[in-house]
Design a protein that fits this description.
alpha+beta, GROEL, domain 1, GROEL, domain 2, GroEL, 3 domains, nine-stranded mixed β-sheet, binds adenosine-5'-diphosphate, binds magnesium ion
């Protein structure tokens, strides 16, 4: 009798599937976990995290995107939150923690509405409306800034570095950042064009942060390959090659079968000739400096040195690109294609002793916009964290100049957005109103977290802040050192407008996207485990979940 229903399988064996509220719940929880992880690092009083990778390398940082990247998160919706941090990093270069924390809070508040049986599409619609409105509010409160406003720009740079490893020298570092960014600004019809790749940030252990400097040109953490090469080359003609100057298959471990010594000698001669030809090819173009992304054979080094060529090998890919941009040289893959037209120019290329080690300074480049900030610090952990702080500051100053608009920080803009959003919600009815209100409350997570991380009572502080904003004091923010409400603009806590608009934009986009998922189907071959699993060895032990 076949009256009984046979179970039907439409998916391969081993596939894990979660549906409906369960899928939503796990996705929201994973996203919240990510936000919770970086939350304690927010603001000047935020704590640092120490991340130890599988090789035992230690990173101590306060930087949201760095933490999330190093953590190697695997849960699919948690990964979507990490993407928010990455977008923020690419678009602005700062504000990554803010974006992630807002995303987490939006989802947390959405969950509350889901429990009240408000459908996720309604929440999604309300969130979108609120997000659009937030952009308008932020733009309307922004203040103008131009290249001439040195004081404001310096405050923007200093705010970016507050509470980071760079804290004690932020004044000096901010001056360097402004100097560097101003050097690379290009005026276009539509406004200012700034390619922050033109500012290279190089860190070198040794001496103190106060010895950091700006160098006009590109600095490489490398030395020339051969002692007999000149230390300085003036009026350098620069060749950039991204393939090896070696003869393939002649490494020591390669077996060659030769039947008699003569044949072996012929082989050696042949190899020597090939290397000599390579060097001849380079010098025939008139090149006096060679930057090679790969290796340079010992023999080739010797020939190059004999002809007075300055050569550096194993130059990082990013540096190769920097050098190409700075000197105007084309990056050559096949040495046979190299012509004098491919060469770039630099006034001087010089090996310089910095601390105990040598570095290569490429100065007076064809493109005068290329600059390097050479940062110094006592230990590698210190310089690495300073480098991250300075990179944030460069991003913020560039962003402020590009859009020409800045806001005060310290929780002030978020408080103002929340206040105006609540007023906007009053004009709506029913469930959308609830969603917009939930959105407004979620934005308040920034001032609340700033207060919490400073050891203040968030309820007291937020009540005071709300009152100040109701009094039309749009820049009322938190003085995290005294616990009082302050005028964040007057206090010089300034940030580019784009940090805030971008953070809210990407946070709400990801929240809406996660909310709309009601079915997670994970194939068995998927390495990260099923949708119910937390990343291995990762965040299972984090406190304060749910
Ligand atoms: P993010 O990765 O989001 O940039 P940060 O740890 O850099 O995170 O913290 C940024 C937050 O700290 C912003 O809300 C900013 O306004 C606030 N902030 C920065 N400096 C101060 C300050 N001196 N007083 C109060 N808040 C500050
Ligand atoms: Mg920051």
């Amino acid at each position: 009798m076949s009256n009984q229903m046979q179970p039907i399988f439409i998916l391969p064996e081993g596939t894990q599937r979660t549906q409906g509220r369960n899928a939503q719940r796990t996705n929201i929880m994973a996203a919240k976990l990510v936000a919770e992880t970086v939350r304690t690092t927010l603001g000047p009083k935020g704590m640092d995290k120490m991340i130890v990778d599988s090789l035992g390398d230690v990173t101590v940082t306060n930087d949201g995107v760095t933490i999330l990247e190093e953590m190697q998160i695997e849960h699919p919706s948690a990964k979507m939150i990490v993407e928010v941090a990455k977008t923020q990093e690419n678009e602005v270069g700062d504000g990554t923690t803010t974006a992630v924390v807002v995303a987490g809070e939006l989802l947390k508040n959405a969950e509350r509405l889901l429990e009240q049986n408000i459908h996720s599409t309604v929440i999604a619609k309300g969130y979108r409306m609120a997000a659009d409105r937030s952009q308008e509010i932020l733009r309307s409160i922004g203040e103008k800034v131009t290249e001439k406003d040195d004081k404001l720009l310096k405050q923007v740079a200093m705010t970016a570095m507050t509470g980071k490893g760079a804290e004690s020298s932020k004044e000096l570092l901010a001056t360097l950042v402004i100097k560097a960014v101003k050097r690379i600004v290009e005026k276009e019809e539509k406004g200012l064009y700034i390619d922050i790749n033109n500012v290279k940030v190089e860190a070198k252990v040794g001496s103190g942060v106060e010895d950091s400097e700006m160098i006009e040109g590109v600095v490489l953490d490398k030395e020339k390959v051969h002692a007999a090469m000149p230390r300085v080359v003036k009026g350098a003609k620069v060749a950039i090659i991204d393939s090896a100057m070696e003869v393939k298959g002649t490494e020591a471990d390669t077996k060659i079968s030769v039947s008699d010594p003569q044949q072996f000698q012929a082989f050696i001669d042949q190899e020597e000739k090939m290397l000599r030809d390579m060097v001849d090819k380079v010098t025939s173009t008139g090149a006096t400096v060679v930057f090679c992304q790969k290796g340079i054979d010992d023999m080739a080094q010797h020939f190059l040195a004999k002809r007075g060529v300055f050569a550096v090998r194993r130059v990082k890919k990013s540096d190769v690109e920097n050098l190409s941009r700075a000197t105007g040289a084309n990056i050559i893959t096949n040495l046979h294609d190299l012509t004098s037209k491919d060469l770039g120019f630099a006034g001087t290329v010089e090996e310089v002793k910095v601390g105990d080690e040598n570095m290569v300074f490429v100065r007076e480049c064809k493109n005068p916009k290329a600059v390097t900030l050479l940062l110094r610090g006592g230990t590698s952990h210190v310089v690495d964290e300073i480098k991250r702080a300075v990179t944030d500051a460069i991003g913020d100053v560039a962003s402020a100049l590009k859009s020409g608009s800045i806001v005060a920080g310290a929780g002030a803009p978020e408080m103002e957005v929340a206040r105006q959003l609540k007023k906007f919600a009053d004009t709506l009815s029913g469930r959308e109103q609830l969603a917009v209100l939930a959105f407004a409350e979620a934005i308040e997570v920034i001032p609340r977290t700033l207060a919490e991380n400073a050891g203040l009572d968030p309820i007291d502080v937020l009540t005071e802040l709300r009152a100040a904003h109701d009094q039309k004091n749009k820049w009322a923010g938190i003085n995290v050192f005294t616990g009082k409400v302050m005028d964040a603009w007057k206090a010089g806590v300034l940030e580019p407008l784009k940090i805030k608009t971008q953070a809210i934009k990407s946070a709400s986009e990801v929240a809406v996207m996660i909310l709309r998922i009601d079915d997670v189907i994970a194939g068995s071959s998927h390495g990260g485990g099923g949708p119910d699993m937390m990343p291995p060895g990762g965040m299972g032990g984090m406190p304060g979940m749910m």
